[in-house]
DNA sequence: TTCTTATATAGGAATCATTCTTATTTGTCA
DNA sequence: TGACAAATAAGAATGATTCCTATATAAGAA
């Protein structure tokens, strides 16, 4: 079963329609491993889909989050960024250029949520976020 | 040395002026343990400081981040939230009401950043973010 | 204390991100 | 092949943040 077939299946299961827009947005999101914004997805799709509206992109991405095939990434910024990588993983953010890198760590995954929190929250997700400056940006700083 | 004296000292060290606006904003941020937005700080200060501008609040909060006396909180949302709690700690977010709870965990703090990331990033900060639904919001759901 | 000047602020306009409204179109299923 | 609920396009509206610039002021020098 290829990507598109599996997407159709998920839509069926969730009772939402398989539209060309949704398919294109899903495709674009899966293709990019770099946590794109709605605007970036919009621009990417526009080439082959000149009448698509930015609103549809936002709406669709949030639909994907609701049905569990995408995540909104935690950021300090004012722009939502989306992630189609649904494996358990963690993020390293560059505070200069905004790049977000995925990484995997069994140690991190196995951390227990403290009892104190489990008493007060129904936990759905747990993620480690690392802030720093990437190599490229450090280099740029030195060059000045 | 009280809060205001220590704030004056930090400003001196960082070479920025001690203005009544900055003092009031710092005070308001320290008073709130609930990760307020710039708008909330603005409204709180406005009472005693009727001419303060929202722009000053934003600018000042970002100055505090730059000189290391505040953090921008990681969120999925489109509004910046600020944190004057500079101790090492972690966050639990309620996805329904947006509440952000601090928590402390030596286990979390002691996690090593993977070599893979240290090779590519100068790490400045590491934080665990837990997503879930708080008690109050779960209750509300049931009541419907 | 007074003067000087680099910084900071107020206020409003501008910009960017996101959501809403409504008329139209289109998957889906009988 | 319809019927109809759901989805989309387009543009307006809203919300968050930043920019512009004239004015005010903190802080060090005299
Ligand atoms: Mn990711
Ligand atoms: Mn906190
Ligand atoms: Zn970078
Ligand atoms: Zn809640």
From TrEMBL, chains A, B:
Alphabetical list of InterPro entries matching this protein: FUR, Fur_C, WH-like_DNA-bd_sf, WH_DNA-bd_sf
Cofactor(s) listed in the protein's UniProt record: Zn(2+)
UniProt-recorded Gene Ontology molecular function terms: DNA-binding transcription factor activity; transcription cis-regulatory region binding; zinc ion binding
Cofactor binding description: Binds 1 zinc ion per subunit.
Binding residue positions for Zn(2+): 94, 97, 134, 137
Keyword check for Transcription regulation: yes
CDD domains membership: Fur_like (cd07153)
Assigned keywords, A-Z: DNA-binding, Metal-binding, Repressor, Transcription, Transcription regulation, Zinc
GO BP term (any one): negative regulation of DNA-templated transcription
Database matches in Pfam families: FUR
Recorded family membership: Belongs to the Fur family.
Descriptive protein name: Ferric uptake regulator, Fur family
């Amino acid at each position: 079963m290829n990507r598109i077939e599996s997407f159709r299946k998920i839509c069926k299961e969730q009772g939402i329609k398989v539209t060309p827009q949704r398919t294109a947005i899903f495709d674009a999101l899966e293709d990019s491993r770099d946590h794109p914004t709605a605007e970036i997805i919009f621009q990417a799709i526009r080439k082959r889909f000149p009448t698509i509206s930015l609103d549809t992109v936002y709406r669709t991405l949030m639909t994907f989050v609701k049905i569990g095939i995408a995540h909104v990434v935690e950021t300090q910024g004012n722009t939502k960024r989306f992630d189609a990588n649904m494996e358990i993983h963690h993020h390293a953010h560059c505070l200069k250029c905004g790049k977000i890198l995925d990484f995997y760590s069994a140690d991190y995954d196995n951390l227990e949520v403290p009892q104190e929190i489990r008493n007060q929250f129904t936990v759905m997700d747990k993620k480690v976020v690392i802030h720093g400056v990437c190599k490229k940006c450090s280099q740029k700083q030195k060059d000045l």
